[in-house]
Amino acid sequence: MHFVECLKPPKRDREELLRILPEEFQDEAHSTTEHRVARWILNDLLARPGFLHDRLHTATALGLTVTGLSKVEHLFARAIYKGVFATNSEPRWWASTARHVLYELVGEDASDIPQYAGRALPGISEMDYSQCYVSKKKDPPPDVVVYSDSSSSASLRVVNRRYSELHPASVAVTPGFDAKLILRKSRT
Amino acid sequence: MYPDLKTIRALEIDTLRKILQIGSFSRLGQIQAAAAGAQSTINEFRGGVNAHLGFTLEIRLRGDRRGKPVARRIDLGALVVAASDNISVDSASYSLLIARYANPATSPVVRKIHFDYEPIERRNAQEPKPSAHMQLCGKFSPHHLAAGYTEVRLRSLYPSREKPRIPLPPTSIALMLNWLLLEFQTDPASQAILSDPTWRNCVIRAEQTILRPYFIAGAQFLVSASSAKQRFLQSHLYELGVDA
After folding, report:
1. Are A187 and A134 in contact (CB under 8 A)?
2. Quick one: which of A56, A71, B41, B144 is 20 to 30 A from A46 by CA?
3. pLDDT tens digit string along A137-150?
4. Closest partner CB to A181 (pick from B68, B71, B195)
């Protein structure tokens, strides 16, 4: 059995994970150590947005604040990551399943932009809408999570993508994962 | 109005490179493998472009059950033919196919369109057409057939009833992909790619290369005193010399 099965991925993500895995993990009888597999799961799959989203990224993808997400979180139980190293305190959601659940819940008349669709979820009020850190506006909804600066103590901010740029540490390409972004210096 | 062959080649090679460099593209099925294959077929110094990108995108269409996104096969083709001088473009055709499901061998074709460019000096004077235009359907390319599509899947779109041609700006791989991702943000990878600064710069370059000369030429025609008595569609977009 390939270790990808231990991640319990949705069908589409399973195929894509198998395609993007570092070469040393490609074979079923992989030529690597369990330690290296564990490190990839912890440092890449669980830590970097792409296949899985943490609470802030999931909320942002739904156009909501983290508090807003907590009101509808139970509806997305099917999307919660239940593979190895899953924890209740720091849950992750499969981005693809969360998107499917969203459109099941909001129906065919909802916006194709998930941030607007998410705001149509039951129990959500304007107070729960996410707000762009730079423009202080809720509409258009902010759609990316960026680092406030390039220091190791940087905070995460939710902004409209126009206020983001590539993080200077984002030099190597990692297939399957989103680019690391930082708050844009020039905001005109 | 349309860039030379060298500029188009450089643009498309750069776009294919960017697809390989942006990690989020890996989540669109086989697009990176296709981009790598297409890149190797373009000679940086000679000839045209014949690239085909097949990939999967989760798209929501009104007819889908409960409005849920469905993984659909998308085929994006670019065929730019070099003129005999190997400097200018003889013709350019960018095609888009959207299948109902992910498997091209078994899925009906939902949409098939292509965006063409044909310079006035290379086309049949007896058949007026906008130099840059969009047409519905049209035949499968060898790439489509190799991917597994069969002619029977196309019949409902009446492939031989391909007119009228609708005047539209010319396009490129980056412009087509960017448009698709904007249109179909139901796939989680779409917003990740749209937010990627590398992709943003790639699209800006394509817009400056392809769209800027098109719109500048159009704006100049409309404001120019010498063309004040001429009709935009006939004289500019169709490039018909005499506006009678």
Report:
1. yes
2. A71
3. 999 999 999 999 99
4. B195
